[in-house]
Amino acid sequence: MAPWHPRRIEFGGDYNPEQWPRDVWAEDRALMSQAGVTLATVGVFSWAHLEPEPGRYELDWLGDVLDGLHAQGIGADLATATASPPPWLTRLHPEALPIDHEGRTRWPGARQAYCPSSTAWRTRAVALVEQLAGRFGSHPAVRLWHLGNEYGCHTSRCYCDTCAAGFRRWLLRRYGGLDGINSAWATAFWSQRYSDVEEILPPRLTPDGAWANPTQQLDYRRFASDTLLEELLLEKEVLRRLSPDVPITTNFMVMTRFNQLDYWRWAEEVDVVSTDYYPEFADPLTHVEAALSADLTRGLADGGSWLLMETSPSAVNWQPRNPAKKPGALRRDALQQIARGADGFNVFQVRASLAGAEKFHSGLIPHAGTDTRLWREVLDLGSLLERLGEVAGSRVESEVAMVWGYDAWWACELDSHPSVDVRYPDRPRALHRALWDRGITVDLVRPGAALDGYKVVVVPTLYLADDAAAAAVRDFVAGGGHAVVTYFSGIVDEHDHVRPGGYPGAFRELLGIRTEEFAPLLEGETVVLDDGSTADVWTEDLRLEGAEAVRTYADGPVPGAPAVTRHAFGDGTAWYIATRTSPEGTSSVLDRVVAEAGVGAAAVTTPGVEVVRRRGEQGSWLFVLNHTGREAAVPASGVDLVSGDDLDGEVRVGPGGVAVVREAGA
Ligand code: GLA
Ligand code: ZN
């Protein structure tokens, strides 16, 4: 075990010196040092430079880079360099190229074109990691190992014959034999029964309009996540052997949008959780999604220290339109992640590339050089993060948990469902946002996790809920907790088989309701509730079996039927929201829930002014992030570490501004 000790708030980014002549390296180091960079991620896409021919390693240049960083007091997050194989590898081993579900080869020429099951690829990757760990495993600059990069990016699932064989082995391990597979996959349907394991294939392209077996699809996603994880474990084994004192991480990939991996499972295998989060510049609520991403990352880190590994200092290159960040946005984005538990803020990348597919992606050092607003903002941020060092290692306070499941997301995405408009993570976002607006911090938790210590648990769109997930919510409420479940939750078990007896099977008794039939709305259709608020997408023909109706439908397919219910269960209360309430409708329900549960905000605030508290042995810090265009005032006493002001009862934060209050008397 190699523990990660946050000593300060780390600051830095991906550093790709192999794209530059050596005379630029000295300037890079001087500028990084000027900006207060503490951590540089090196070597992510360097395989072709480290092993230019099979078995011939050229590691000296990387040694020079690490020595240079160390001399400047900058640590390295050293990549295992396996993110993208060099062209020679797949020329030598063409079977290592990935095949998509239509049987098409994905060719090299971009990045990450390899089959995750390929033995040739794995053997060569392990050999490279052995070289790197052997040479640099105790280099004084190396503070962290960065395994792969955004596992699953570009090629998350391969459908080749090697993967098919791996899938069969995985299925036999999971189900013990063919009978188990036939029963989990319900192959009595459509003549799908397998009589020999060798007949089983990945869910490849099927005839038009004929959906592949849903459990086969779901299991393939589980298998694909596990297969990529095997790669990480192979590298981890080498590193534990050759570099036991250096902790390991891998950057998870924008987990609120990218769902190829079961990150709950992955988080168990790293010493420090890190993630990438990039804003969607066209989404006016992208900063709320950034908060959700941070809350999820903190959940994966079990409330402990984590790192934001990548975001853009300014523009990205991969959205249809790529504006620069507005003045002050970089600082606000950074502080938001730190407010929510990050002990490091790193970007892609240190110096903007001049060539290649990402040349219009911003870097800390822009094309235009250092006489730029961006560079001045980078310097400001570096010095602010240094001042915030005292926050490192403290924990975020939260009384509300939200269950977030990759299985549930995968299953929800399967085809031939009651409505294409039920999409994950629509409701998680909506409920999180309603709480965010009130300054209530939410921890994201794994389905089935113990929920003690929370006052409220939110369970949005947990379509697939296994028995453990259902029991955890039930026990929580029985013990006095308040739960809010939204529609299309608890419908199927872990095999995607419907739980019979009325919906939502897994939560029916807890919620004190029984739904006979779904009544999803047609495209564009809305319904009005008895409080005048509107809803869309979903209604259901719900009967009360112990619960009370808090809202009913005034019109729509099931007029008079309950739309929101409340049920006293054990010592607690279970709420059900049976329709896709508007933001106002969602808020008014959550207002009642948090009031009844006695949940407090980090500070009294107004929508758009984000407040979060971190608390540690040294005291507590209130972060205030003003995402609005107006000045905001929040009650606070202590010292604002951003402005240096002493506060007596109130902190005023300008439009787009930030404050970090070291709280008096805390
Ligand atoms: C991802 C990758 C980086 C880079 C950035 C660009 O996060 O990990 O290598 O491509 O995207 O935004
Ligand atoms: Zn494959």
Strand fraction equals 15-25%
Largest sheet properties: 9 strands, parallel
Q: What's the count of strands?
A: 29
CATH class of the domain at 400-597: Alpha Beta
Label the CATH architecture of the domain at 400-597: 3-Layer(aba) Sandwich
According to CATH, what is the topology of the domain at 400-597?
Rossmann fold
Q: Number of DSSP helices? A: 17
Major sheet strand order: 5-4-3-2-1-9-8-7-6
- Low-confidence segments: none
Structural class: alpha/beta
CATH superfamily of the domain at 400-597: Class I glutamine amidotransferase (GATase) domain
Radius of gyration: 26 Å
Structure described in brief:
With 666 residues, the chain is of the alpha/beta class.
Overview of this structure, please?
There is one protein chain. The protein is an alpha/beta fold and about 675 residues long. Among the domains are: about 1-10 and about 245-390, TIM Barrel (Alpha-Beta Barrel), CATH 3.20.20.80; about 400-595, Rossmann fold; about 610-665, Sandwich (Immunoglobulin-like). The chain has 17 helices and 29 strands. It has a nine-stranded parallel beta sheet, with helices on one face. A seven-stranded mixed beta sheet has the order 12-11-13-14-21-20-19. A six-stranded antiparallel beta sheet has the order 10-23-24-29-26-27, with helices on one face. Strand 6 (about 250-255), helix 9 (about 265) and strand 7 form a beta-alpha-beta unit. The longest helix has 29 residues, at about 215-240. The protein binds alpha-D-galactopyranose and zinc ion.
